[in-house]
Write a structure and sequence with these properties.
This is FAD dependent oxidoreductase domain-containing protein. The protein has two domains: 32 residues, no CATH class; 136 residues, no CATH class. Helices cover 11% and strands 38% of the residues. The chain has two helices and 13 strands. The strands form five sheets. The protein has a four-stranded antiparallel β-sheet with strand order 3-8-5-4. A hairpin with a 2-residue loop joins strand 6 and strand 7. The termini are far apart.
Amino acid sequence: GEVVIKGKRIHAKYILAAPGRVGADWFAEQARNLGVKLTHGPIDVGVRVEVPAVVYEPVVKVNRDPKFHIRTKTFDDFVRTFCTNSMGWVMEERYDDHVGVNGHSLRAKKSQNTNFALLIHIETINHAARAGVYTPICKGRRCYFIHGFETPHLLAVDHVDCANVAIFRPDENFVVRDRW
């Protein structure tokens, strides 16, 4: 194949493109231009949960980054934990005009909290699957982002099965709709 980068033609047997979340729409456009058939596969979406470090301490003593896999009884959903940050921080991430959160921790500096991602595996449908735009879905609740957010806030989880999750401060930019 051939690729042109900043006006320079590069010939290669294989071309690897890794545009990341922000470049997903660009990548899809490039694939369509090349006649590549696009399909939408399953995705994992979720929330970042933050708890006092003492609550999660017995778990991280056994495994620094534990992975819990849960199959729910009500909807047979596959839910899992991912990317535990013991005594770490929840941080804001921006992708163009979208705001999300992630977690990180430092070796030398510690917080009083531990955070981890709680993800649900969902099968996508073509009109709902836009890579790079996350629609948090957790136990029958869908939160649609109408506009961007100024400041992410801590997660509030009511139940272990995530029946109700508040991701950002509710205001005119936040709409929660029941499952439809």
